Amino acid sequence: MSTSGSISAARTAALVGDFDRSPAYTGLADALRLLIGDGRIGYGTRLPSERELTEALGVSRTTITRAYATLRDTGYAEARQGSGTFTRVPGGRARAHDRALLPRAGDHEAIDLNCAAASAPPGVAAAYAEAASDLPAYFGGHGYFPAGLPELQAAIAATYEARGLPTSPEQVMVTPGALSAAAIVAQACTGPGDRVLVESPVYPNATLSIRHSGARLIGVPVDPDGWDLGAVAAALRQTSPRLAYLIPDFQNPTGQLMSEAQRQEYAGLLRRAGTVAVVDEAHQALPLDGQEMPRPFASFAPETLTLGSASKTYWGGLRLGWIRAPEGRMEQLTAARVGLDLGAPVMEQLVLARLLAHGDEVVDAHRARLREQRDRLAAAVREQLPDWRFHLPGGGLALWLQLPGPLGTALTDEAERRGVIIAPGPVFAAEGGLDQFVRVPWTRPPHVMEEAVARLAEAWSAVRDRQGTTPRGSARVMVA
After folding, report:
1. For residue 358, which phi and psi values (nearest 5 degrees)?
2. C-alpha–C-alpha distance, residues 234 and 268, integer Å
C-alpha cells in the first residue's frame, strides 16, 4: 500500500476498539499489528503521538510507549527522528507480492487491481491462532483427508441447511480452493471432446481448469443487464453439452445476480437438455446491501454440483474450497480427486471450521468494508469518467465497466504505465471480443481506489488522443 499520510488519534481509537487489556500494552500492540497487516492503517502512515493516543484511549502514557516499542521490535513500525512513529511491515511492501503474478519492473509499487481479492478482515488472524492450538491432535495420524475434516464437512453442510438446501456432511468434499474443485468436477464428469456451456464473460481461470480435461467450451452471453436465457436455450438445443458452468451469485465479472425466477427457468432448460449444472458460488456470501439472497441453484436443479470458496468470503490466502454433490456422486468425484491431490491442508481446514462457527461476525465486518470501497469507487468513476457505463452490483467484488469504444486493452496498457494494473475485457471472453470493457475490483482502501480512478482518467484521456495505436503490453496471469 502506498503511503497514506497520518492517522488521527480518534480514528486509531475507533479502529482498535475494545482491545485486550491484560496487559493493555500487549493488547494494543496486537490490535495495531492486525490493522497494519491487513491494510486498514496504511504502509508508511504516521501514527498518533504518544500523548494524543494516551488521551484518546484513556490509558497511561507507559502503555502507549510500550505498545509502540513492541511494534518496532516486531517490524510493524519505525521511529523517524523528529518526525514520529511510522507504520511498516516485515519484509517491506514486496512481502505481499508473488513474482509469478507481478513480474514486471514497477509492479510492486503499482496499485494492483488485477486480482479481485481483499485483505483479511478482522477475526481471521485470531482463527489461525486458535486453530494452531488444535493442530497437534492430528499429528498422530497420516494427515490425509481426501473428503475433508469431518467437522469442516459438517460446518459447510450446515451453511446449506441454513439456506434451505438439505445437505449431509457426506455430500461435501473439501478442496484446496474453488479452482481445484472445478478441476475435480471436470476430471470426473467430462472427457476429450465433451462440450461444456460457459458464460461469457466468465472467470477465466475456471474455464482454464475445465479445458485441461479436454472439454470444448461453448460460450453463451451474459449481457451487462443480465443473462440471455433465449441464447442459453438455443445453445443447449444445438450443442447438447454435458455440463454448464454458471456463476449466478454476483457473476464474475459482471456482478449480476440471477433471480429465483431465472434460476427456475434455467434449471428447466438444463433438465430438458440432460445437462448438469456446475455452479460457482464464490461470491454468494458477499451481498453488500442487506438484501435477501435467492435460494441456491441446486434447490431448482437437484443434480447440480455446487462449488464454494473461502477465499472471497474470508481471505485469498485461506486456500480452501469445496464441492457440494448430489447423493451418489461422491465416489466418482473421489476417484477423480486422488489423481490430482490427496486433500487440503489440515491447518487451514481447522481455521475455516472456526470461522464458520462464528457465523456472520467476521463476514459482516468484511461486507461493511467492501460496501464502503464499492461506493467510493463507483462515485469516483461517475465523477471522473462520466462517459463510462456500469451496473452497480449489489454485492461481489468488482465493477464491470463499459467504455465508449473498444479500447480496453489499450487502456490497460496505458494505465499500467501510470501505476495501475487492471484486467481488460478480452481476458474474460470465452470466445474472443469484449474489448469495450475493463474490470476494476473494489478490494483496496477507499483512498487507494480514488487514486486509482484518477490515474485511470489520465490514462483514458491519453488513449482517446491516440486511438488506433497498438498496445505494447502482454497478457498477465489472472488470479481472481
Report:
1. -85, 5
2. 13
Spatial distance between the Cα atoms of 36 and 70, rounded to a whole number of angstroms: 13
CA angle in degrees (0–180, nearest 5) for 90-91-96: 100
Q: Give dist(CA 243, CA 305) in Å, integer.
A: 10
What residue has cell string 490514462? 459
Task: Give strand pairing partners of 1.
Answer: none
User: Are 401 and 386 contacting, i.e. CB atoms less than 8 angstroms apart?
Assistant: no
Q: pTM of this prediction?
A: 0.82
Q: Across-strand partners of 6? A: 46
d(CA 279, CA 282): 9
Cell of 304: 447440480
pLDDT digits (tens, 9 = 90+) for 249-308: 999 999 999 999 999 999 999 999 999 999 999 999 999 999 999 999 999 999 999 999
**Residue 94 phi, psi (nearest 5):** -70, -10
The SS3 of residue 389 is strand
**Treating both helix axes as pointing N-terminal to C-terminal, what angle do 446-465 and 408-417 enclose, rounded to 10 degrees?**
120
d(CA 22, CA 380): 43
What DSSP designation does 478 have? P
The SS3 of residue 437 is strand
Q: Which residue has the cell 441453484?
A: 297
Q: How far apart are CA 215 and CA 194, in angstroms?
A: 5
Residue 280: which of 322, 341, 221, 233 has the closest Cα? 322
